[in-house]
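The instructor's notes for this session suggest beginning with a concrete chain rather than abstract definitions. Hand out the sequence below and ask the class to guess, before any prediction is shown, which regions might be ordered.
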Amino acid sequence: MNEAVSPGALSTLFTDARTHNGWRETPVSDETLREIYALMKWGPTSANCSPARIVFIRTAEGKERLRPALSSGNLQKTLTAPVTAIVACRALGLDTGPMSGFDRQYVDDAFFAGSTLKSNLLINIGYGDSSKLFARLPRLSFEEACGLL
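After discussion, reveal the predicted structure:
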């Protein structure tokens, strides 16, 4: 039986969720990363092919290897995040296009050379420092972003 998502869960996922720019000094455990993957793996796939592959970067050496690929706006928050996940995909003949905030080709060469993996997304993972949040910017109205046919 499918149940509606509670208003509290919707708030947590959407209206209260924020992109953090600073982090508390709390490490992210292996267990937490395993729990994240255990939930994420059940997301929608194409024909159950599960193309996502993830590299979790936690070491200073790994962050320095990633540094040249980062845009200036993402540099500090990525280097100081407890974990940065590189989400890559097995090449399935589809191109997801360039993603903002990092040099995709550099990441592919530095982390996936000799494989069929292509980077798609960087995700910083940690316990955010809410004192370093930026003010929330406005969003488009329904009329500005949507059409009805």
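Then share the key points. The mean pLDDT is 89. The two ends are 31 Å apart (CA to CA).
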